[in-house]
Amino acid sequence: MRIRQHVNPLKANFFQIAVEPPDLPAGVPLEVELGSAEAHFLMARAAEDPARFYVGVEIRRDLVALANATCERQGLKQVRSVFANISVDLPRLFPAGRVSRFFLNFPDPWWKTRQHKRRVMSPELVVELSGLLAEGGEIYLATDVFDIALDSMAVLEYDSSRRFANRREPWTFLPESPFAARSRRERQCEVADVRIWRLGYRRI
User: Fold this and answer.
1) Catalytic residues
2) Using only C-alpha atoms, what is the Rg of the chain?
3) Domains contained in the chain, number
4) Could you give the C-alpha distances from 115 to 43, 109, 120, 175, in angstroms and in order?
5) How far apart are CA 194 and CA 197, in angstroms?
6) How far is residue 74 from each of residues 43, 92, 101, measured CA to CA in Å?
7) Residue 111 confidence (pLDDT)
8) Does residue 21 lie in a domain region?
9) Is residue 6 part of a domain?
10) CA torsion angle for 55, 57, 60, 62 (degrees, to 10)?
11) Considering the domain boundaries, does residue 11 fall inside one?
12) What global pTM score does this model have?
């Protein structure tokens, strides 16, 4: 099965997705990965901390089906992937204040200037994530592209309402991941000794 590596989230047909919100267990901390692909990271998080519930949001339907089939086969009932568009569907997936952590692992770089509007981290997304996060909730981003890391940091640091605080100091990257879980791309970078830029922010 051939699965597209990159999908334009601004195409009209991706604004008309019939979203099915995941069935979230009450009283269980929720972690969400935006752009979860095969959900390798969330499966690893579930092994690391099985007392939480994990949801991956992915715009490629085939990968959602693949991830859910893998989780079912492995008995990972606390991991679920959903087919949705991050640009418009997050409020339909999660109640306000319900999420404890958001992860953005190696978002698409969209190198060309005219494609920059497709990049996932934006002031609008920051506002949306703030409303979905519980007080003290966290955002973590990892990328091997310095421009993406710096642009994402600028969006979070320049947020006029000061919704988030850097987990270390302003304009400072995390020296390492606070989690044992690794995405597929993250493992590839570590094997190839490629620098990974990591951001961590807490909702104020």
Assistant:
1) 108
2) 16
3) 1
4) 31, 9, 11, 30
5) 10
6) 9, 28, 24
7) 39
8) no
9) no
10) 10
11) no
12) 0.88
pLDDT along the chain (204 residues), means of 10: 45 56 95 96 97 96 96 97 93 96 84 52 92 97 94 89 93 97 94 97 95
Residue whose tokens read 């994990």: 54
pLDDT of residue 6: 44
The reply to whether 15 falls in a domain is no
User: What is the Cα–Cα distance from 34 to 32, expressed in whole angstroms?
Assistant: 6
Q: Which helix (H) or strand (E) holds 142?
A: strand 133-143
Kindly report the backbone phi and psi dihedral angles of residue 153, in degrees, each rounded to the nearest multiple of 5, phi listed first.
-65, -40
Which residues 6+ apart lie within 8 Å of 63 measured at CB?
3, 36, 37, 38, 81
34: containing domain: 28-203
**Residue of 65, 54, 81 whose CA lies nearest to 3:** 65
Residue for token pair 């988030």: 164
CATH assignment at residue 104: 3.40.50.150
Which amino acid belongs to residue 82? Answer: V
